[in-house]
Amino acid sequence: MKYNRILLKLSGESLAGEKRNGIDEIRLEEYARQIKEAVAMGVQIGIVIGGGNIFRGLSGSKKGFDRVKGDQMGMLATVINSLALSSALSAIGQKNRVFTSIRMEPVGELYSKWKAIESMQNGEVAIISGGTGNPFFTTDTASALRAIEIEADAMLKGTRVDGVYTADPEKDPSATRFDTISFDEVYNRGLQVMDLTATTMCKENGLPIVVFDMDRYGNLLKLLSGENVGTLVHV
Ligand SMILES: Nc1ncnc2c1ncn2[C@@H]1O[C@H](COP(=O)(O)OP(=O)(O)OP(=O)(O)O)[C@@H](O)[C@H]1O
Ligand SMILES: O=c1ccn([C@@H]2O[C@H](COP(=O)(O)O)[C@@H](O)[C@H]2O)c(=O)[nH]1
């Protein structure tokens, strides 16, 4: 197995499937099944989910919302997605625990590194919701932060593109994909597959990132089995 412990970042937008907003039950179940299979392989999994399918503070502020309140709405959106994933995992018999970065029992348990590690060691999926708990950040940064805290071997960024490209592949059809790329090259080329705060945290803490297409069923297991899936971003 390639990694013993991972932090899997799931895209909120991808969770909406074809709907573009809200939660697509089929996509949710596909994610849950892949995660259960990965746990069965013996991988310890922490998860951070985005909230872009429900609300983003920056888009809200362009429509007149206060930025801090908008970001708080966005963080709550990640809690909603996390509860949905928790429910889908429980429905297929996968033990899991929802942690929140902001105190809100009984919705979830207040996050701490040690509780999350203990949960993973007990075979539970640790779903870490609520972003960093602070406005002006993203769930990519929350993923980097939590991955480093829980001492993950890698951060796997599951998204709707199959890796890092020379340009945004959704805008530039001539863009080509990297198998591997260094953090320095990501900066030098100005690639925007993750925000710079997240990228910098990973680089400074020697945490590799794999960007891969989580919406293609089976990719997570392939990646964990050592197959060449996605793009490895390395120090
Ligand atoms: N150089 C690049 N290589 C690959 N993807 C890129 C690149 N530049 C921009 N992107 C875009 O980044 C997107 C992936 O980012 P991400 O998964 O964070 O989406 P998101 O919508 O921010 O997720 P969330 O809903 O969780 O906030 C891709 O859909 C792709 O269009
Ligand atoms: O640490 C954080 C994480 C997220 N937010 C807010 O939540 C939304 C949704 O997260 P995405 O990463 O965009 O999916 C984000 O736009 C922020 O508004 C935050 O404030 N702090």
Automatic annotation (TrEMBL):
Q: Which residues bind ATP?
A: 9-12, 52, 56, 159, 165, 168
Protein family (similarity comment): Belongs to the UMP kinase family.
UniProt entry keywords in alphabetical sequence:
ATP-binding, Cytoplasm, Kinase, Nucleotide-binding, Pyrimidine biosynthesis, Transferase
Q: Which gene encodes it?
A: pyrH
Phylogenetic lineage: Bacteria, Pseudomonadati, Bacteroidota, Bacteroidia, Bacteroidales
- Activity regulation note: Inhibited by UTP.
Pathway per its UniProt entry is:
Pyrimidine metabolism; CTP biosynthesis via de novo pathway; UDP from UMP (UMPK route): step 1/1
* Name of the protein this chain belongs to: Uridylate kinase
InterPro entries named among the record's database cross-references: AceGlu_kinase-like_sf, Asp/Glu/Uridylate_kinase, Uridylate_kinase, Uridylate_kinase_bac
Kinase in keyword set: yes
Q: Which CDD domains match?
A: AAK_UMPK-PyrH-Ec (cd04254)
Task: Give this protein's Gene Ontology molecular function annotations.
Answer: ATP binding; UMP kinase activity
Task: Name all Aspartate/glutamate/uridylate kinase domain ranges.
Answer: 4-213
Quote the subunit structure annotation.
Homohexamer.
What highest taxon heads this organism's lineage? Bacteria
Cellular compartments per GO CC: cytoplasm
Task: Name the Gene Ontology biological process terms.
Answer: 'de novo' CTP biosynthetic process; UDP biosynthetic process
* Catalysed reactions listed for this entry: UMP + ATP = UDP + ADP
EC number annotated for this UniProt entry: 2.7.4.22
Q: Which organism is it from?
A: Petrimonas mucosa
Where does this protein reside within or beyond the cell? Cytoplasm
Q: Which residues bind UMP?
A: 51, 71, 132-139
Function per UniProt: Catalyzes the reversible phosphorylation of UMP to UDP.
